[in-house]
Design a protein that fits this description.
The chain is an all-alpha fold. The protein has helices at residues 2-23, 30-49, 53-62, 64-86, 91-98, 101-113, 119-136, 141-145, 151-172, 179-203, 213-241, 243-249, 252-263, 271-288.
Length: 293
């Protein structure tokens, strides 16, 4: 049961990241936001892992290549692609494309881990995907036919297999480090990789992070909640349940994002959203009910 609770919390925490990424896209440069997000996360993680760092140093040295690869794929490449994509597309397009994640997760699980998908899981995935379509179409299927895709959409779509491969590597990796220690190692390498890109982005292109309370609050949220907490929950959930099941649980993200838009942003709640969320929950339950324990 623990992996499924963690895989529920991860998309809940990430829903705020998507709302911030789109809602403040004009004020927050993608590279700068990602750099400071994970710098904040690294500071938090450093405090957590510092007491046992000397005892675990040998494991970090032994598995530094794996940690570097995980940080590069999951923190640098995936996150920057999402933030840049959100500057060039709509939330509707982003949610639709993001909902293809389970497909890539299943493919990755089959190729990397030899996991197979059951008929019940396939049906559950289809049901939850129909719920997502109900939300983004606003109950009118003609809206889906009118969707136009652009460069931002392509980036978000290409980010999905990157995340799937990251999750597959995470499942296979046996470093001997616990979840927070693994995340700390990933984050250290990711921040080191992003630092030169951030310096160039500021010095050459002038993309500085604005100094204000809303920006500071946004960075703290995406760093601590959508960074440390969400990644810990996802990483531990994937280790326990596997990428395929995690992919189905990922469909909870648009449901949480919809509720967040209503509660936090004051958007109106419509019947098609209620139906969509109900279908998502039903699909996730169908996909996981025989495996949760």
């Amino acid at each position: 049961m623990r992996p499924y609770i963690l895989l529920t919390l991860a998309p809940l925490f990430w829903s705020g990241n998507w709302l911030i990424g789109r809602g403040m896209h004009e004020a927050l440069p993608p590279i700068g936001l990602n750099f400071w997000r994970w710098t904040v996360a690294l500071a938090v993680l450093a405090v957590i892992v510092a007491p046992n760092l000397r005892a675990r140093w040998g494991l970090y040295a032994k598995h530094w290549k794996t940690l570097c690869l995980l940080g590069f794929l999951g923190i640098v490449v995936f996150q920057v692609m999402i933030y840049v994509g959100l500057r060039h597309t709509t939330v509707i397009n982003a949610v639709v494309l993001n909902s293809t994640m389970p497909i890539f997760m299943v493919i990755t699980s089959w190729l990397m881990l030899k996991e197979t998908i059951t008929v019940r899981q396939a049906i559950g995935g289809a049901v939850s995907f129909s719920g997502i379509l109900a939300i983004v179409s606003r109950g009118d299927w003609h809206v889906l036919l009118a969707i136009e895709f652009n460069f931002g959409d392509l980036l978000i779509l290409l980010a999905m297999p990157v995340w799937a491969v990251y999750s597959g590597i995470l499942k296979r990796a046996e470093t001997g480090l616990n979840g927070l220690e693994t995340l700390a190692g990933m984050t250290l390498f990711a921040v080191a990789i992003m630092l030169p890109a951030y310096v160039v982005d500021v010095a050459v292109y002038g993309h500085q992070m604005p100094a204000s309370f809303p920006v500071t609050g946004a960075v703290l949220y995406v760093g601590v909640v959508a960074g440390v907490a969400a990644f810990y929950c996802w990483n531990e959930g994937v280790r326990g349940a596997g990428p395929a099941i995690a992919g189905f649980m990922y469909h909870l993200l648009p449901a949480f994002t919809t509720v967040g838009a209503v509660v936090v942003l004051g958007e109106a709640l419509f019947i098609y959203q209620v139906v969509g969320i109900a279908l998502i929950l039903a699909g996730v339950y169908t996909s996981t009910r025989n495996t949760a324990h």
